[in-house]
Specification:
- With 352 residues, the protein is mostly helical.
- The chain is 54% helix and 4% strand.
- The protein has helices spanning 8-23, 43-59, 62-73, 95-105, 108-123, 144-160, 163-180, 206-222, 230-247, 267-283, 291-303, 332-349, and strands at 28-29, 35-36, 140-142, 191-193, 314-315, 328-329.
- The strands form three sheets. Strands 1-2 form a two-stranded antiparallel sheet. Strands 3-4 form a two-stranded antiparallel ribbon. A two-stranded antiparallel sheet has the order 5-6.
- A hairpin with a 5-residue loop joins strand 1 and strand 2.
């Protein structure tokens, strides 16, 4: 494994690998371990799409926009009709960058496809506390849902002037904070049942904390500062950011279980937290005092970058509450979030 220097060369290397991943998203497996090609365009591809979006937004590289077109044109036809199932919360996350593509190209079919996601969510069965559960017709609300759902709703609401969707996004976040975030550390638990019990799964699961921070900050960036939830959610984010800053290892990584100091590191935790902190600095939610934390995270990710641009060391996919398989390696969610972090960090620091 070769450690590459910080700067444009590293960003381009990981972005190129991310575009390769976008051109052929890996097939995920279902809960029984069987290949499930239908899931290849869900949240795993959504994070790769996020990486391409941020690269395009910060550098204007036309290859990034072309890669996004290629991704979405495989799953949305010329009328804006989805060619894959979109019937669960995890399928919504890919709509976030779809809206960016609509904005950049002006093609109405992308907007129609995004509207289909909104229609699906409007009909989606609510849990007992009014939240959208991870799976329909259940009471289970997971931390993952915050990142998969809320930024899309907020971006759609802002672009298409649908204020009720801002309320839906902020209600999901506020209810989760009230029901499933530890008061002492401000870190989330993995999930809860809307009709009880709460505080389930690991407290401070690393990637779950990354999901939590991403869901908050990418919603806050889209949320008007005048919205009634903005100040409260910004304060919630800042409190959690202080905890993760205090828990960062000297090498820049975080443990897969953030509060467990002897556990294995997880590159996907590092990339998601690093991205969220960097975006919060740029949005003015955090001050520049957090920049050294982000710098250490970027340096840690450089250290696990392979010569082909793929990053290593990400914890395997969770299989449910309390199920965190101790398998580490390159993962699509790591590549996309690290690419997004690298692009934001380079923009901020003007590395050469």
């Amino acid at each position: 494994m070769t450690a590459l220097p910080l700067g444009e060369a590293w960003r381009r290397l990981v972005a190129t690998a991310n575009r390769r991943q976008l051109s052929s998203p890996p097939v995920r497996v279902d809960m029984q371990g069987a290949p499930d090609a239908r899931q290849r365009f869900s949240w795993t591809a959504a994070l790769s799409a996020l990486g391409a979006e941020v690269c395009h937004r910060t550098s204007g590289d036309a290859r990034e926009l072309a890669a996004l077109r290629q991704l979405y044109d495989r799953i949305i036809d010329q009328r804006g009709v989805w060619q894959i199932p979109v019937n669960r919360v995890e399928h919504v996350m890919i709509g976030y960058t779809l809206l960016y593509l609509e904005e950049m190209t002006g093609e109405s079919r992308y907007g129609r496809a995004a509207a289909c996601l909104v229609e699906m969510l409007n009909d989606y069965p609510r849990a007992a506390d009014g939240s959208l559960p991870y799976l329909p017709h259940t009471q289970l609300v997971l931390v993952d849902t915050l990142a998969m759902l809320c930024p899309f709703l907020a971006r759609y609401a802002t672009m298409h002037h649908v204020a009720t969707l801002l309320d839906l996004a902020t209600a999901q976040l506020r209810t989760f904070v009230a029901h499933n975030v530890d008061a002492e550390t401000s870190l989330p638990y993995h999930g809860y049942y809307a009709d009880g019990p709460r505080y389930l799964g690991l407290h401070g699961w690393g990637r779950g904390t990354g999901w939590y921070l991403l869901g908050l900050i990418d919603t806050l960036v889209e949320l008007p500062a005048s919205h009634s939830a903005h100040a409260d959610l910004a304060a919630v984010f800042a409190r959690a950011a202080e905890t993760v800053r205090d828990c960062q290892r000297q090498d820049g990584h975080w443990h897969w279980a953030i509060l467990h100091r002897a556990d294995h590191t997880d590159s996907s935790t590092t990339s998601l937290i690093g991205y969220s902190l960097m975006r919060a600095i740029q949005a003015g939610i955090l001050d520049d005092g957090f920049l050294p934390t982000v710098t250490r995270a970027v340096q840690a990710l450089v250290g696990v970058t392979r010569i082909d641009g793929m990053l290593d060391g990400a914890l395997g996919e969770s299989r449910g509450l309390g199920k965190y398989p101790q398998q580490y390696g390159p993962r699509p969610w790591l590549q996309g979030s690290a690419t997004a972090l690298g692009a934001l960090y380079l923009q901020e620091t003007r590395m050469t």
